[in-house]
Amino acid sequence: MPVSKATNQSHQMLGTGIQEGLLLKPIRYQWAYDLYNQAVANTWFPHEIQLGEDLGDFNRMTDEERHAVTFLMSYFNPNELLVNKALALGVYPYLNSPEAHLYLAKQMWEEANHCVAFEYVLETFPIDRDEAYAAHRDVPSMAAKEEFEVKYISRMTEQSLDITTTEGKREFVRNLVAYNVILEGIWFYSGFMVALSFRQRNLLRNFGSLIDWIVRDESLHLKFGINLILTVLEENPDLQTAEFAEEIRQMILDGVEMEERYNHDLLPSGILGLNASYINSYVRYLADRRLEELGFESHWGVSNPAKWMATANDTLELVNFFESVNTSYEVDAKASS
């Protein structure tokens, strides 16, 4: 039986045809397949890290320092699962590309793995779980961030998007910006910097290793999300308007403002070597990088105050970053000939 010619829609990233995207080869979006293979090579499991060895550090830390760790867990834990809902309900159903579907399936597993990793932290350290879980609802600055994210996913999940329309495609891109760029690319990285700052003072070293592995995953999530946004914009000229570009830019600026308020609650008095102003300088630096990666001018023009985080957040140097760290943990590594 002759194979019918594919529709134009099947040659694009966006599409909802169930029978489209069932053949992986020939690869159309090589970047998505490369990211899938890298993600598989980076597979890790939380309980391989001996978190119990950090208990002595945790017990010696100040109330402010323990508050920061608890606050981070209360934010990260539910949001890993929220990202999965955004991917499963708001991204995966609207793509044709089988290589993008492969990557998203691995990313969803990684988000689940991160959730388990943060549960491991809550099980190991003497953290009040009820207090940690309640904070994402009870702390206004944290609740505002969650409300922002839920607003975007609700638009996509409570009604089906019609991605044959310009407005439907705009909603799809808004969701990607909210989750991949703002939540994962700015808010998560702000938290990673705080979490890793303890190791800079020789505290919570195993916890730091756990965060390293999560950052490595998130670097790929960010790379995939930005590539996906740019691909959809390139393939859909009707989205390329000055008004829509300004809306996206403003979303990122609003995200920074919310994060700055949150960081004052995270570190109300500051801890050794770290305070809200320092973190917020880093947030603005991150946001400038995300703006540039999406094709905008930088907004704040601030330098990186945490240069020790540079390898973790520079997606443009992602390949070099992975070449430098893969030897520490990689599955399915090819034996050198």
Automatic annotation (TrEMBL):
It catalyses: a 2'-deoxyribonucleoside 5'-diphosphate + [thioredoxin]-disulfide + H2O = a ribonucleoside 5'-diphosphate + [thioredoxin]-dithiol. Gene3D superfamilies: Ribonucleotide Reductase, subunit A. InterPro entries: Ferritin-like_SF, RNR-like, RNR_small, RNR_small_fam. Its cofactor is Fe cation. Binds 2 iron ions per subunit. Fe cation 1 binds at residues 80, 111, 114. The chain crosses the membrane at residues 176-198. It comes from the Bacteria. Keywords: Deoxyribonucleotide synthesis, Iron, Membrane, Metal-binding, Oxidoreductase, Transmembrane, Transmembrane helix. One of its GO terms (biological process) is deoxyribonucleotide biosynthetic process. GO terms for molecular function: metal ion binding; ribonucleoside-diphosphate reductase activity, thioredoxin disulfide as acceptor. Its EC number is 1.17.4.1. Provides the precursors necessary for DNA synthesis. Catalyzes the biosynthesis of deoxyribonucleotides from the corresponding ribonucleotides. Belongs to the ribonucleoside diphosphate reductase small chain family. Tetramer of two alpha and two beta subunits. This is Ribonucleoside-diphosphate reductase subunit beta.
